[in-house]
Design a protein that fits this description.
Elements: H1 4-14, E1 38-39, E2 45-54, E3 57-59, E4 62-65, E5 70-77, E6 83-88, H2 90-105, E7 109-110, E8 113-114, H3 116-119, E9 136-139, E10 144-150, E11 157-160, E12 172-177
Parallel strand pairs: 2-5, 4-12
Antiparallel strand pairs: 1-10, 2-3, 5-10, 6-9, 6-11, 7-8, 11-12
Length: about 180
């Protein structure tokens, strides 16, 4: 387990990191047509995996799946901060962290709260910060939601929290293939 001092340091970092780049969440899809798989159909779910988000780690820390398997992830935020559950490759997470930084800079992510009105802001080119991609959830403390995902083939895939500073503090886990 991580200590409360680490949580405080990461919380402070998430509010003080400079803008790293531009981007937006527009539902066009992290995960669409990439090597990480695709949104799954409820009728194809073979099992449910409960994922609990804490400040700043996941339980479990790794997950095993089979290529072609459709999994329901039941995700709960038991931390005190806003956290994300995002399925992607390390390079996808790195790029997405720039978008998440913009969410902090524009007041969408406010420590333990989300400003849902600001998520609707036009960031240019029709992009918003709605965070509505099918491979990702952004949850306030106490919230729970689900992601249904089909892992189409083996790859270097992680689940991660890309809120600024959280990934760097160790809030990511491996998706291992059986």
């Amino acid at each position: 387990m991580r200590t409360s001092s680490l949580v405080a340091a990461v919380a402070a970092l998430s509010l003080s990191v400079p803008v790293l780049g531009a981007g937006g969440h527009n539902g066009q899809g992290q995960g669409h047509g990439t090597p990480i798989g695709e949104p799954g159909k409820e009728k194809n779910v073979t099992r449910t995996i409960t994922v609990t988000m804490h400040d700043n780690y996941y339980e479990p820390e790794s997950i095993k799946v089979k290529p072609g398997e459709t999994v329901r992830f039941a995700v709960q935020n038991k931390g005190n901060l806003v956290h994300e559950f995002n399925i992607g490759t390390p390079s996808m997470h790195e790029a997405h962290q720039k978008e998440m930084q913009m969410m902090v800079e524009h007041g969408v992510i406010q420590g333990g709260k989300l400003n849902r009105e600001r998520m609707k802001m036009d960031m240019g080119d029709g992009h918003s910060m709605m965070h509505d991609d099918p491979n990702s959830l952004l949850l306030e403390p106490g919230q729970s939601e689900e992601v249904v995902w089909t892992f189409t083939k083996k790859g270097n895939i992680e689940f991660a929290c890309n809120v600024p500073g959280h990934y760097q503090a160790g809030m990511y886990g491996e998706i291992n293939f059986k």
